[in-house]
Each structure stands twice: as structure tokens, then as C-alpha cells.
Amino acid sequence: MNELLEKGQSRVNWIRSRMQLLRNVQEVFEREKPFKNKTIGVSLHLEPKTAVLLETLKIGGAKIVGTGNLGSTQDDIVEVLKSWGMTIYGERSTDKEEHLSNVVKIVSAKPDLLLDNGADLRSVQELLGHQSLSTTQVYTHLTTKRMRESYDDAHPRAEAG
Fold first, then answer.
1. pLDDT tens digits for 89-147?
2. What is the DSSP code string of 37-53?
């Protein structure tokens, strides 16, 4: 095991021990697999708490494809996520073009759900030269119907129909 991975695992183990709610959710997700056959695309701050969240989604059956946010990615956490079988693009960088290229890779994976706290889907819209986000949704194959189906399939309180 390399030093970066070892450091990341130690940090994730420490924070996981303080996240009882997600540990409880992991137990439910292990049984129910609410994200089975779903791909979740992420553009988030990749740090220990996020790693535990993504671990929880993976335990729930999700395939994770992601990148960090511009300037906030923690390389040891990227190594941990990759060791768990997640597809993670990039490393700590402040290069906007590189970051947008990684976001396009996420969108190109055609995820069923997106987790994004940096409004990077808007960046993809701008990068692709689309006039409206609805055009970008066509490119990413995100329709209201598909979003609703994903919600109905994955959310425990979703109503049928």
C-alpha cells in the first residue's frame, strides 16, 4: 500500500467512526441496494466526509464516477476512492480547463444522478456553448422523466406513479 493511500484510509476511518448516521444508512443500503444499476456522477469536495458519503452510495449499489472541485481535491482521498473501485478523474489542481475536462468526463458517463455542489453543470453548459441548460440536459440525457424515474427508483419516500 502506498503512503498516500495509507494516509487517506486513516483519515477516512477516523471520520467514519464519528458518522453514526451514515453507518446506519450503510446497514440499510447493504440489504436494500437502492442504487443498484445506477451511476452517480459527482463533482464535490473530495475529503474524508465526502468519501464516507460516496462509500455509502456504493454500498447501496451505485457505480460512482467523479471528480473533485477546483482547488479542493485531497489526493489521499482520491486514492482511497479509487481503491474502492470508483472512477475518479483528476487530482488537486487549480487549472480550470483541466477541471472542466474532468466534469465533461463525468457527464459523458451518462449518470442517472448528479451530486454537485459547485454548479459545474452550468460550467459544462458554458463550455459546450449551449444557450440553455435544457440543451445541456439533452446532451447529458437528463430529462425530467428520467430524473423522476431515478427519484422514484431510489428515494425511499417516493410515491409510485
1. 988 776 778 888 888 888 888 888 888 775 455 555 555 555 555 555 555 555 555 55
2. T-EEEEEE--SHHHHHH
Confidence at 5, pLDDT banded by 50, 70, 90: very high
Tell me the C-alpha to C-alpha distance, in Å, between residue 107 and each of 22, 29, 69, 97, 140: 27, 25, 15, 15, 6
DSSP 118: S
C-alpha grid cell, residue 86: 470508483
Q: In what order do the strands lie in the sheet with 63-68?
A: 87-89, 63-68, 39-44, 113-116
The SS3 assignment for 20 reads helix
Phi, psi of 68 (to 5 degrees): -85, 175
Residue of 86, 91, 78, 79 lying closest to 56 (CA atoms)? 86
Residue 131: the pLDDT is 56
E strand residue ranges, the chain = 39-44, 63-68, 87-89, 113-116
- pTM for the whole structure: 0.75
Contact 12, 80 (CB under 8 A): yes
| Element housing 58 (H / E) | helix 48-59
Q: How many residues does the chain have?
A: 161
